[in-house]
Design a protein that fits this description.
Radius of gyration: 19 Å
Structural class: alpha/beta
Helix content: 40-55%
Number of helices: 11
Shape: globular
Length: 314
């Protein structure tokens, strides 16, 4: 039987970095082709690696042919905060990359495609508590608008062409890489500054509650969704995904268990308004029913895991 060959676009990003490692651990180094616009920082671990701008559809097609790709994880994107600086450019880049992947998948009969969405698809008029799977999606950022469009196109390509596209709406991801331009980076920056003993300036107010997910859970959710039989996938737009919810103040109190002298200043900026348009808690009942999703990391376990990781880096 022919082994699956995986293509990862955006392999240097917050999810791509850990996803690449996980896929290679499961399927072998040579079965996973990592790509991004710039070379990775950890050298040989990322080989094979191909430098790729995902707005180049012809090069995506070339890589698929050369490496006989059977599955694609499309993670290349400009995220919410950076996107608001130049919204038209963000829309162009994100949508061009997305359509290049969909068309390549259709043309080459790719077995499965993973395209992440985000809680950014929701807006201020969406129920913020226990946000349901099927509800109003009226985002207030261009990033969120691009994700709503992507979700609809995922469903369209499945229904019209039979392209097996799968997606989850990620909460704010607590990741191990550098800040990525996401509103959810408030949590990552707070944890990292506590380890380096810096006074942290939080760009959100202390009582702003947001859904969060630890990177290990985010990667596992992606893999479990892709492993699920097609007959179990009832949502062809994007699945709600939940782990836990917390405020900056609650995160700060948890961090202080490790660094009692850690200081924080709250200085909300424009990202505060973005956060207030997002859900506070998510109902992921459908994901739990369809492909048995179950988070493993709560707030306490996430902070502990990050502390262990960051101390090793130091």
């Amino acid at each position: 039987m022919t082994k699956d060959k995986f293509l990862i676009l955006g392999a240097n990003g917050k999810i791509g970095t850990e996803l690449t490692k996980s896929l290679r651990k499961i399927y072998g180094q040579e079965q996973v082709i990592a790509t991004d616009t710039h070379l990775p920082t950890d050298g040989a671990h990322y080989l094979p690696f191909v430098k790729l701008d995902a707005t180049d559809g012809a090069k995506i097609a070339h890589i698929i042919e050369r490496y006989r790709i059977t599955q694609i994880f499309h993670l290349a994107a400009i995220l919410s905060t950076k996107g608001e600086i130049n919204p038209l450019n963000m829309w162009r880049v994100n949508m061009d990359c997305f359509f290049n992947v969909l068309e390549a998948a259709r043309s080459y009969n790719i077995k499965k495609v993973f395209v992440p969405s985000s809680i950014a698809v929701f807006g201020a008029d969406t129920p913020r508590e226990n946000t349901p799977q099927n509800t109003l999606r009226m985002p207030e950022t261009v990033y969120g608008m691009s994700k709503v469009s992507s979700e609809n196109w995922c469903s369209y390509y499945f229904k019209k062409y039979g392209t097996d596209v799968r997606s989850v709406r990620f909460p704010a991801v607590i990741h191990k890489t550098e800040s990525t331009g996401s509103t959810g980076d408030f949590a990552v920056e707070m944890i990292k500054n506590s380890v380096s003993n810096k006074v942290h300036e939080c760009f959100m107010s202390p009582d702003t509650r947001l859904p969060l997910i630890y990177i290990d859970d985010a990667v596992r959710a992606s893999l479990e969704l892709m492993d699920a039989p097609a007959t179990k996938i009832s949502i062809r737009s994007s699945y709600n995904l939940a782990a836990f919810s917390a405020t900056p103040a609650e995160l700060y109190e948890e961090i202080k268990k490790y660094h009692p002298k850690f200081k924080i200043l709250y200085k909300p900026d424009f990202r505060q308004n973005t956060a207030l348009s997002w859900p506070q808690t998510i109902d992921d009942t459908v994901a739990r029913a369809d492909w048995k999703w179950q988070s493993r990391f709560n707030l306490e376990e996430t902070v502990n895991a990050m502390m262990v990781y960051l101390r090793k880096q130091v």
